[in-house]
Design a protein that fits this description.
Length: 437
């Protein structure tokens, strides 16, 4: 409570003044020795609220609102008592103090709306400073009210939670399965080469599977399109081989001092990055060109292929670019992000889809994402363009709130300039796509 008062005092002060003013201006008194009914009920509510706060029944921001309500009522009553004494009147005039609870409640509400974010920001800074030596874990938490959400899979979680619990103002450290921090990108030469090899192998495998099976019936999916996807995967493998060769050259080209020559040392890392990019292009080729080559594929066949792609994903851990892109595509095949006509409001069903997409993006944090929103050709072209951009911005803000780094996201409204199909069917009237860069 001390922490709340110290950070909420700017709103408690006018509440105290409101109590003084109410006591001075009202002259309704109860009979001697009597207590006004409103004060009895408020006292019971205060006792129940205090017990709830002590037992930590309400978590997050709800807990903060309860604590500020208790502090506000207590400060208001102190102000009203002070006001009665200033008038040299008896405290029996408390019957009229109920009127002042209205402005006090409004001040309490405004204080929570504008003050709670400041409390969270202060705690975020304090917690971050307390665990700044915990490497990647220093950003892997979230403040909600006065509680800290800390992932269950964080290294040395028990010690980290104990450190956080000692920070002034922190009430509880709550475990969660979510991950809030962006994991660091590949930095070393070996990691870059390994990432390129893994991405290339997955792209080749996906291409070959597409040749053999196709995303839909073999009679509907052309062999040439699938073969191109496989070729793109082979190119990724070739790029990786070049990365390995460059790495060997860098090692043999060491200077007498034992250090790798700067230019040679950067080549394998660049080659590994090129391999990842090529693998990503292969994954996009598999999804985009196969879709273009199989317009007759039924919705059931596409849904089955999407379910199979998601089922093949590992349950946890990072994903390479190709696997992440395939998972994003499959998710958007199974569940659509829909807006009402002319609206940018995200409904409950669409929010559920975006939550799953945000979780996938956090498993491939080194990639930037372009969120493309397409509109139908009904209505004015300029209006459609503006609407699609607003929707792209809305989706981007939602993902940022879910923990995806803002620097990774770019929202692009395409209007009705790039239809996926004829506007005569639902698929052609508008869509949202996630493209990894």
């Amino acid at each position: 409570m001390t922490y709340i008062i110290s950070h909420f005092w700017l709103w408690l002060l006018p509440i105290f003044i409101a109590g003084i003013a109410t006591a001075i201006l009202t002259r309704q008194a109860e009979a001697k020795g009597k207590v006004a009914p409103w004060l009895i009920w408020c006292g019971l509510a205060f006792a129940a609220g205090a017990l709830t706060a002590l037992l930590d029944v309400l978590l997050g921001r709800a807990g903060v609102w309860l604590e500020t309500a208790l502090a506000s009522f207590m400060v208001y009553m102190l102000g009203a008592g002070a006001g009665a004494l200033l008038r040299k009147r008896d405290l029996a005039e408390h019957k009229g103090w109920a009127l002042g609870l209205i402005p006090a409640a409004l001040l309490w509400f405004a204080g929570n709306v504008f003050g709670t974010p400041n409390i969270e920001a202060d705690l975020k800074q304090s917690v971050g400073a307390a665990i700044k030596d915990a490497r990647e874990s220093a950003r892997n938490f979230r403040i909600v009210g006065r509680d800290v959400l800390l992932p269950n899979d964080v290294a040395d979680r028990a010690a980290l939670a104990a450190t956080i619990g000692k920070v002034e103002g922190v009430r509880l450290v709550i475990g969660t399965d979510k991950t809030f921090a962006e994991t660091p990108a590949v930095k070393t030469v070996e990691q870059a080469v390994d990432a390129g090899e893994a991405a290339a192998e997955k792209a080749v495998e996906a291409g070959k599977k597409t040749v053999e099976n196709g995303l839909a019936d073999p009679g509907k999916a052309t062999h040439d399109v699938a073969a191109k996807a496989a070729d793109a995967g082979e190119e990724a493998a070739t790029a990786t081989e070049k990365a390995v060769e460059a790495n060997a050259n860098a090692v043999t080209g060491r200077a007498d001092s034992g250090k790798i020559a700067p230019n040679a040392a950067t080549k394998p890392a660049d080659a590994g990055d090129d391999a990842e990019k090529t693998a990503l292009q292969a994954g996009n080729a598999i999804a985009d060109q196969s879709n273009a080559a199989t317009p007759a594929a039924s919705a059931a066949e596409k849904a089955a292929a999407a379910k199979s792609a998601l089922k093949s994903l590992p349950a946890s851990g990072p994903l390479d670019a190709a696997a992440c892109q395939a998972a994003l595509n499959a998710t958007l095949v199974l569940d659509k992000i829909d807006f009402r006509s002319g609206s940018v409001k995200i409904g409950r069903a669409s929010a559920y889809v975006l939550d799953r997409l945000a979780a996938l993006l956090q498993r491939c944090p080194e990639r930037k994402v372009e969120i493309g929103v397409h509109a139908d050709n009904i209505g004015d072209e300029e209006a459609n363009q503006a609407l699609s951009q607003r929707r792209a911005d809305k989706v981007t803000r939602y993902l940022i709130n879910e923990g995806v780094a803002a620097a990774r996201l770019t929202g692009v409204g395409h209007g009705d300039k790039k239809p996926v199909a004829s506007n005569d069917d639902e698929e052609g009237r508008g869509r949202i796509e996630f493209i990894l860069k």
